[in-house]
Amino acid sequence: MKGLDQALPRWVNIGLLPLLNVVTALLVSALVFLVIDVNPLKAAEILLYGAFGYQEGLGFTLYYTTNFIFTGLAVAIAFHVGLFNIGGEGQAYIGGLGVGLLCLALDTSLPGPALLLLSVLVAGLFGAAWAFIPGWLQAYRGSHIVITTIMFNFIASSLMVYLMVNVLREPGQMTPQSRLLDENSWMPFVHEVLAGIGIEFEASPLNLSIILALLCALGTWLLIWKTKWGYEIRTVGFNRDAAVYAGIKPAYVMVLAMAISGAMAGMVGVNEISGVQHRLILDFHYGYGFAGIAVALMGRNHPIGIILAALLFGVLYQGGAELAFEMSNINRDIVVVMQGLVILFCGALEFLYKPLLAKFFKEKAA
């Protein structure tokens, strides 16, 4: 495929090919709707209205997008060093655990801004620590990163169940959840911030974590393309032998990249625990880590592409919920089908159109 890459302009590889793959996935989704006797145009109208048609729906869309940005960036950073981190689920879970433990201990003791800053740092540290171990095992012991990150997803899930049932559960309650955190530790909601400056906006889970997500995207771009560490990460990802020849230590760089990747996934805990749930609960992370793989693939592992891909998945989540509510013969599983088709065409069939486009541009150049 390298020859095909050279035959195509950069804007085709980065923009046109992902767009064609997404359009193909949506066309196949339309065929699925026809099979289940649903008008695809009507379904698309409802889906888009649910995602963008009113303020609350837009808030939910951007709230989901925030989590997908975090997990998409996590996968992309690992990809750049040549590793396939599919442990975003566990890293997000443990990041949220760190935020919850911090707030349970200090939510009435520290000023709100300091507590929120510490929550971000702790979420990153807990997520980084959970990714560090598989990264170290891969770099220094040769353990396959896919296997170890999957295992750590299950370990994180089991650990959270034990803690929520036996240690952190609110006294006198049967539900496996912690006590409600003090409002001092809550991430401000966007609608409350806008109300403070005189702008009315319907209430939704959207909170200032979306700004954190955009800052993380900017930080990832600066790290990967503008720093010495980023150069080392990309060099190891392209060719480890060449990296060694250049004086780079691949094992160290791989562990570093995995730790940063885990820190990005851990930020989901800020959005969920500090921003929305305001208590520790089970499965607040569910699905975001695995969807982050598709977001990174669709976004070509570039922060701008990841933001756009995350927005698409946010639309599918929120619009799919609206679709399931409005149409009796559709349930939320249709979102999983649409996600699966996007993953199929942007992942497994990523190069479906590349030979045709390469031939076209080669003939045009000739």
3D structure, described in words:
The longest helix is centred in the middle third of the chain and has 30 residues, at 112-141. The chain has helices spanning 2-7, 10-35, 40-52, 55-80, 88-106, 112-141, 145-166, 190-196, 209-226, 228-238, 240-245, 250-266, 268-277, 288-298, 303-326, 333-348, 354-365. The mean pLDDT is 91. It has one domain: Orthogonal Bundle (ABC transporter involved in vitamin B12 uptake, BtuC). The chain is globular. It contains 17 helices and no strands. The relative contact order is 0.20. The two termini are 20 Å apart. With 366 residues, it is mainly alpha-helical. It is 75% helix and 0% strand.
List the helices and strands and how they pair.
Elements: H1 2-7, H2 10-35, H3 40-52, H4 55-80, H5 88-106, H6 112-141, H7 145-166, H8 190-196, H9 209-226, H10 228-238, H11 240-245, H12 250-266, H13 268-277, H14 288-298, H15 303-326, H16 333-348, H17 354-365
Helix pairs in contact: 2-16, 3-4, 3-15, 4-9, 4-12, 4-14, 4-15, 5-6, 5-7, 5-12, 5-13, 5-14, 6-7, 6-12, 6-13, 9-10, 9-15, 10-12, 14-15, 14-16, 15-16
Global Rg? 21 Å
DSSP E strands, number: 0
Helix coverage percent of residues? over 70%
Main sheet record: none
Query: What overall form do the CA principal axes indicate?
Result: globular
CATH C-level label: Mainly Alpha
**CATH topology-level name:** ABC transporter involved in vitamin B12 uptake, BtuC
**How far apart, in Å, are the first and last alpha carbons?**
20 Å
Mean residue pLDDT: 91
Backbone structural class:
mainly alpha
Number of domains: 1
The DSSP helix count reads 17
Spell the H/E element sequence: HHHHHHHHHHHHHHHHH
Which band does the percent of strand residues land in? under 5%
Please identify, by name, the CATH architecture: Orthogonal Bundle
pLDDT < 50 stretches: none
